[in-house]
Amino acid sequence: MVEGMKLSELLRGREERAACQVSLLEDFDAVVQVALNIPGLPKDPPGAEACVATVARRFVERLGRVPQREVVLANGAGPARLLAFSSLDGETLKALALTLEEEKSWGRLLDIDVIDVRGALSREGMDGSPRSCLLCDLPAKTCARLAGHRPEALRTATLALLAAALDDLGLTSSTPGGADPSRATGPEEP
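Below the sequence we write its predicted structure tokens.
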């Protein structure tokens, strides 16, 4: 029953994200959703919220523009930051998202979506290559459809990427008694 409860929480969380995106697009031109690719449940391992908050802040810094609105979500779908912008085209935002997803060795962990009035902008639509699997060179969607890897192996690889991200972002400490990534938080506003 616990697994069923977690699945229902995941589905409710996804619905909440989608509803929030739709609501924001009523008032703004584009929404950037910063989240993580976390296979399996739960979707909020220790450090996930701190990672999402820091990447969202870096997105805003690199863009050079503060969002008109920021929504912080923490639900069964995992932590997410939704950044709403006016007077910016989705292509500009998606180009920056792709740069952030690809510039670090742990960038495969990032899931930065851009949604505008036309819908979600895809990597392929921006001349980006499809995301590769965490464990092999096949496109991730193909590998997922074929169920080519054990879920535990995917989860282990993802948690290793999260640990690398937290270390690179300065959100952990290797000293005894150092920072606990499950308690690290970023600022609510960029």
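The two ends are 39 Å apart (CA to CA).
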